[in-house]
Amino acid sequence: MATILKAPSLKDGSKGVIIFTTQERDEFILGNNKILSKINKLKSDWFVGLHHNWHDHKFEYNPIFDFSLAGEGDLIEINDKKFNQIYLDACNFSPEFFKISNNEKNWIFYM
Questions:
Q1: 0.90 exceeded by the pTM?
Q2: Which of 9, 17, 61, 75: disulfide with 81, CB 3.0–4.6 Å?
Q3: For each of the chain's 111 residues, which pLDDT tens digit applies?
Q4: H/E run at residue 69
């Protein structure tokens, strides 16, 4: 799901930060010229990032994304192109109490 990490600031002129996932890239963005055009228009006020939901050892850099979020060693660019990478992925945000254990698993659903 696309996530806004920071809105653009009129006060200091800093850009906003929006992150798309690889699923959004593959299913909705790439191949859709209307969406690509809209994202390109955003880039004057936004940094556009791509969160990789898994290892990609056949990664192909696309300049529509200003940076990639993935763990160190998770991405191998097949054309040896340089790209900006922030070494974070979803597992870096889990609280410490989420850990592997042999305890009984319980699921709570709220409706």
A1: no
A2: 61
A3: 789 999 999 899 999 999 999 999 999 999 999 999 999 999 999 999 999 988 899 999 999 999 999 988 999 999 989 999 999 876 666 667 667 778 776 666 665
A4: strand 67-69
CA-angle at 66, arms to 62 and 67, nearest 5°: 95
Is position 40 within any domain? yes
Instruction: Identify the residue whose tokens are 């191949």.
Output: 31
Residue 11 lies in a domain: yes
Closest Cα to residue 84, out of 56, 65, 59? 65
Q: 3-state DSSP: the chain helix, strand, coil percent, rounded to 5?
A: 20, 25, 55
Measured in whole angstroms, the distance separating CA 10 from the mean position of its chain's CA atoms is 24
- Separation between Cα atoms, residue 83 and residue 109, nearest integer Å: 40
Would 49 be classed as within a structural domain?
yes
d(CA 27, CA 3): 16
